[in-house]
Amino acid sequence: MTEGRTTISHFTAWEDEYSHVKWGGAAPIDAIRSRIPEKGRILDAGSGNGRHLLPLSNYYNCIGIDVSTKALTASKEYLAKRDREAHHSTASITDLPFQNNSFDAIVCFGVLQHLLRKERETAACEFERILKPGGMIFLEVFGINDMRYGGEEVEEHTFVRQSGIIYHYFTKEELKSLFCGFTTNDINDVITKKIFKGESYTRHMVNGIIQKVSESDTKIS
């Protein structure tokens, strides 16, 4: 393993990335809507260009954060075109500018996989800090059997690409361990196949819903 290119600069690499990332359409939020009452306060942690923030803004009090100002600018434009509003803030999930116990839910799709180990641990602590007791985290990350696994290894199952962006590949057990202070509701491996030029490739995602321990659970323990 090497130590090169493993500094905070991998956050700034997202500015270049979002120079060519295109809007992929609004993402489904059925799992969130079925569990979080309308008007709840939701943080889209790593909101990118607003694929989840847009549909969430129809039902919730939303805040989108990202390390890329270009992504946030694009998100604002997409929401404005559809007469939707959400607060946007430039911030990292490793240092959230919010008060303790202030969110009903956190959406974090495809973000934790772009952090180094200590950063992932810090982000998990920050999520626990800002969530209300009983609040939920909706997660999705790359799994270790994914076709994209590999590159210049900087930590175990963690690689840095030419772009400077970090890619970490999780096991289900690792994701559970990262949030060991929470009530783990449901974490799953999602394996699909992709055919490219006649060859079959594996797409592996790990997703789940994790809940912060409620006040009643704390009193019982």
TrEMBL record:
* SUPFAM superfamilies linked to this entry: S-adenosyl-L-methionine-dependent methyltransferases (SSF53335)
Q: Where is the Methyltransferase type domain?
A: 43-138
Keyword Zinc among record annotations:
no
Give the UniProt keywords, A-Z: Methyltransferase, S-adenosyl-L-methionine, Transferase
A single GO molecular function term of this UniProt record: S-adenosylmethionine-dependent methyltransferase activity
> Which InterPro entries does the record associate with it?
Methyltransf_11 (IPR013216), SAM-dependent_MTases_sf (IPR029063)
Transferase among the record's keywords?
Answer: yes
In Swiss-Prot or TrEMBL terms, this protein is called: Methyltransferase
One Pfam family from the UniProt entry? Methyltransf_11
A GO BP entry: methylation
Matching CDD domains, A to Z?
AdoMet_MTases (cd02440)
